[in-house]
């Protein structure tokens, strides 16, 4: 029997130009950004690796030739000074605000003791820019090879059924403003329809879905008073409960929207069972009046082939 039309292979190429596509915050002694996409995985020297000068918050950015859904990134570290990879963040998106370093975060990486090359899954995150960002003072960033895999296939959205009981929890509860109120189906911004943590350090709210989904869009309704409590809140999506789920990949940082209580955030197919709202500030409270999550279970499978001289060839995407 033939394969149904909804199940088929798509053959796509990610074109990574060798000239002008990779840039970095500074360059040390000729170790240019483009050396990290030269097709060589050699970890041993000046003619193979990129290297910034010593500075605060160094970064390296790859501009793809269009908007792609990135599934996997392979990174080769240098054989010496391996610790310089520790704490580097990978961000993917379409914005150049803060040089692209404010785009959604896929992962935080570290040196892998038993291998110079590691693989990071970004689960179909969408963007034209792939950033490596090291948020530390007086440091370097070095990359010997970066290989990016993914495709252009569309991601269709459907509603995620969000269980109304037992799915939402928060770091603390003030005066009966329970976590479940943010998924009660009411977009009212009054006191009987919103969540509210106690005033504390680093408050959070977490939604547990009934399985692992690819989250495309989240709608958030803020309270009609004390609206600035939403400023700086981070949205994280993933499958880990380390640090109560707040260490999962970050989709966005949100703020109050002056002309509307409800805003929409795109998470571009990020995968996870847990959706966290996390406020990384001291002595503060977190309030949410409604959270609606949309996405689907569509698998995003990829078949990797070699990236040679800046091209990914025959990156097959299986749509289920």
Automatic annotation (TrEMBL):
<feature type="domain" description="Fucolectin tachylectin-4 pentraxin-1">
    <location>
        <begin position="13"/>
        <end position="156"/>
    </location>
</feature>
<dbReference type="GO" id="GO:0042806">
    <property type="term" value="F:fucose binding"/>
</dbReference>
<dbReference type="GO" id="GO:0001868">
    <property type="term" value="P:regulation of complement activation, lectin pathway"/>
</dbReference>
<dbReference type="GO" id="GO:0046872">
    <property type="term" value="F:metal ion binding"/>
</dbReference>
<dbReference type="Pfam" id="PF22633">
    <property type="entry name" value="F5_F8_type_C_2"/>
</dbReference>
<keyword id="KW-1015">Disulfide bond</keyword>
<dbReference type="InterPro" id="IPR051941">
    <property type="entry name" value="BG_Antigen-Binding_Lectin"/>
</dbReference>
<protein>
    <recommendedName>
        <fullName>Fucolectin tachylectin-4 pentraxin-1 domain-containing protein</fullName>
    </recommendedName>
</protein>
<keyword id="KW-0106">Calcium</keyword>
<keyword id="KW-0479">Metal-binding</keyword>
<dbReference type="InterPro" id="IPR008979">
    <property type="entry name" value="Galactose-bd-like_sf"/>
</dbReference>
<keyword id="KW-0430">Lectin</keyword>
<feature type="domain" description="Fucolectin tachylectin-4 pentraxin-1">
    <location>
        <begin position="157"/>
        <end position="301"/>
    </location>
</feature>
<dbReference type="InterPro" id="IPR006585">
    <property type="entry name" value="FTP1"/>
</dbReference>
<comment type="similarity">
    <text>Belongs to the fucolectin family.</text>
</comment>
<dbReference type="GO" id="GO:0010185">
    <property type="term" value="P:regulation of cellular defense response"/>
</dbReference>
<comment type="subunit">
    <text>Homotrimer.</text>
</comment>
<comment type="function">
    <text>Acts as a defensive agent. Recognizes blood group fucosylated oligosaccharides including A, B, H and Lewis B-type antigens. Does not recognize Lewis A antigen and has low affinity for monovalent haptens.</text>
</comment>
